[in-house]
């Protein structure tokens, strides 16, 4: 069966649903953000060795593209470190709602990176998200503002590497791309483990369980599905779907963690405004796509 746009959306939604658990797992794992991400990318890279032939892969991809993908892997590493840093500095719900601003950053970065025209309604969506961000900031304790800033940086980084992947993954095997990017992320983070990785390096028995779920199910599988979906979907449409991650994640955090005790109603009003803006884009995109088809 041909790989269709509908199948790409279904696979991406499955990946995003599984990503909803990553913030929960990150909160449960008792390691620093840097050490946690290092174990995550290392275990994911090792899980892919059986699926790629390293020597043949480098020859077929070419040296230039190999180093381009490795550079994207560095951005992926920085995204995950800042994402889990936001969780440690604030909480899972705040880190997740910051990720909902990815579409705001994508509306600016994707046209610049993939060389397409700016869409006025994407920029309008970004402006509409700003009051939601203000309400989120107003709805938390001042001590969590650093976590919000780090979370927003993480959202900007994910919009950049998604746009870069969209530009460079054409006709490439998703398993190979995942291996190169996360292998590069592992090498990039390794020199920083000793000075910045915190006091604990080895995971506890329960940390190992959480790390294996995080690495194999929520990273290896989801990274493969999300990369493959980009062959049929735009980076903005992909980032928009990824914005469902905070919906799933905040719902899970509300019941599984104690985040609700740390957040005021203002935070949830801001989160609701961001989610409404994100889903409003879907209706706008369908309307203008239908108009372009009829013209």
TrEMBL record:
<feature type="transmembrane region" description="Helical">
    <location>
        <begin position="93"/>
        <end position="113"/>
    </location>
</feature>
<feature type="transmembrane region" description="Helical">
    <location>
        <begin position="37"/>
        <end position="54"/>
    </location>
</feature>
<feature type="domain" description="EamA">
    <location>
        <begin position="12"/>
        <end position="137"/>
    </location>
</feature>
<feature type="transmembrane region" description="Helical">
    <location>
        <begin position="66"/>
        <end position="87"/>
    </location>
</feature>
<dbReference type="InterPro" id="IPR037185">
    <property type="entry name" value="EmrE-like"/>
</dbReference>
<dbReference type="Pfam" id="PF00892">
    <property type="entry name" value="EamA"/>
</dbReference>
<feature type="domain" description="EamA">
    <location>
        <begin position="147"/>
        <end position="280"/>
    </location>
</feature>
<feature type="transmembrane region" description="Helical">
    <location>
        <begin position="208"/>
        <end position="227"/>
    </location>
</feature>
<feature type="transmembrane region" description="Helical">
    <location>
        <begin position="267"/>
        <end position="284"/>
    </location>
</feature>
<keyword id="KW-0472">Membrane</keyword>
<feature type="transmembrane region" description="Helical">
    <location>
        <begin position="120"/>
        <end position="137"/>
    </location>
</feature>
<feature type="transmembrane region" description="Helical">
    <location>
        <begin position="12"/>
        <end position="31"/>
    </location>
</feature>
<dbReference type="InterPro" id="IPR000620">
    <property type="entry name" value="EamA_dom"/>
</dbReference>
<keyword id="KW-1133">Transmembrane helix</keyword>
<protein>
    <submittedName>
        <fullName>Threonine/homoserine efflux transporter RhtA</fullName>
    </submittedName>
</protein>
<keyword id="KW-0812">Transmembrane</keyword>
<feature type="transmembrane region" description="Helical">
    <location>
        <begin position="177"/>
        <end position="196"/>
    </location>
</feature>
<dbReference type="GO" id="GO:0016020">
    <property type="term" value="C:membrane"/>
</dbReference>
<feature type="transmembrane region" description="Helical">
    <location>
        <begin position="143"/>
        <end position="165"/>
    </location>
</feature>
<feature type="transmembrane region" description="Helical">
    <location>
        <begin position="234"/>
        <end position="255"/>
    </location>
</feature>
């Amino acid at each position: 069966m041909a790989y269709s746009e509908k199948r790409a959306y279904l696979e991406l939604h499955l990946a995003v649903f599984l990503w909803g658990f990553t913030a929960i797992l990150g909160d449960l794992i008792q390691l620093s953000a840097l050490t946690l991400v290092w174990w995550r990318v290392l275990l994911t890279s090792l899980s892919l060795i059986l699926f790629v032939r390293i020597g043949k892969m480098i020859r077929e991809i070419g040296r230039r593209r190999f180093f381009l993908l490795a550079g994207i892997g560095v951005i992926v590493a920085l995204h995950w470190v800042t994402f889990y840093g936001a969780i440690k500095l604030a909480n899972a719900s705040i880190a997740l709602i910051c990720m909902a601003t990815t579409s705001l950053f994508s509306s600016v970065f994707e046209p610049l990176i993939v060389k397409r025209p700016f869409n006025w309604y994407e920029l309008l969506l970004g402006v509409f998200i700003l009051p939601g961000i203000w309400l989120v900031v107003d709805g938390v304790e001042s001590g969590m503002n650093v976590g919000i800033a780090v979370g927003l940086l993480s959202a900007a980084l994910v919009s950049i590497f998604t746009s870069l992947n969209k530009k460079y993954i054409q006709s490439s095997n998703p398993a190979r791309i995942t291996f190169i990017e996360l292998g590069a992320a592992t090498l990039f983070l390794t020199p920083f483990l000793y000075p910045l990785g915190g006091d604990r390096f080895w995971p506890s028995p329960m940390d190992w369980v959480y790390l294996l779920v995080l690495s194999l199910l929520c990273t290896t599988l989801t990274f493969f599905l999300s990369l493959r979906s980009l062959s049929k979907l735009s980076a903005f449409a992909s980032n928009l779907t990824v914005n469902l991650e905070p919906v799933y994640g905040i719902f899970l955090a509300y019941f599984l963690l104690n985040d609700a005790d740390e957040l005021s109603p203002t935070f949830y009003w801001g989160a609701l405004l961001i989610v409404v803006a994100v889903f409003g884009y879907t209706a706008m995109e369908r309307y203008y796509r239908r108009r372009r088809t009829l013209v």
